[in-house]
Amino acid sequence: MKLLANENFPAPSVAILRSIGYDVASIGEDDPSISDEAVMKIAIAQDRTILTFDRDYGVLIFKHGFRPPKGVIYLRTDPYNPTFPAEIAHQLISASGLELAGTLTVVSEDKVRERRFL
User: Fold this and answer.
1) What's the whole-model pTM score?
2) I need a surface site. Which of 45, 56, 68, 101 has the fewest CB within 10 A?
3) Mapping DSSP to helix (H, G, I), strand (E, B) and coil, where does residue 29 land?
4) How does pLDDT run across 51-67, given as a tens digit for each residue?
C-alpha cells in the first residue's frame, strides 16, 4: 500500500511502516512546510493514502472539493510515543470491514469513523 505521511506524522512511525513493507513517502523528509493543498495534490498524483494529525483535511475534502482517491486517515489521538501512529495505521489498514479508499477515516481514542466522499 502507498502512503503519504504528512509533516506531523512522526519519523519513527514512518520508519516502522516502511520496515513492515509499506511504500511511505514523507512530507517531512521530502517537502517540509508545503501547504495542505500541495500535500493533497501529491497524494492524488501519486495515488497515496494520507496519514495526518491535521483536521484541516476534512475541510479540504468536504468544502474545497479535493478528492484523494485512496483516502485520508486522520488521527485524533495523542501520539503517546513516536511509534504509536504506525501501530494505529497498520491496524486500520489490516482491518477487515474498513474502506479507506474514497473516505476520510477519523480515528479517536474510542472509535473509528469513516465518511465517504467518492
Assistant:
1) 0.95
2) 45
3) helix
4) 999 999 999 999 999 99
Residue for grid cell 484523494: 68
Domain of 24 in residue numbering reads as: 2-116
Q: Is 65 helix (H, G, I), strand (E, B) or coil?
A: coil
Q: Residue 25's domain is classified under what CATH number?
A: 3.40.50
What is the reported pLDDT for 79?
64
- What is the Cα–Cα distance from 8 to 28, expressed in whole angstroms? 7
- Cell 489498514 locates to 93
Question: What does the pLDDT look like over 15-53, one tens digit per residue?
Answer: 999 999 999 999 999 999 999 999 999 999 999 999 999
Distances (CA, A) of 73 to 34, 42: 19, 15
Provide the domain count of the chain: 1
Q: Are 72 and 50 in contact (CB under 8 A)?
A: yes
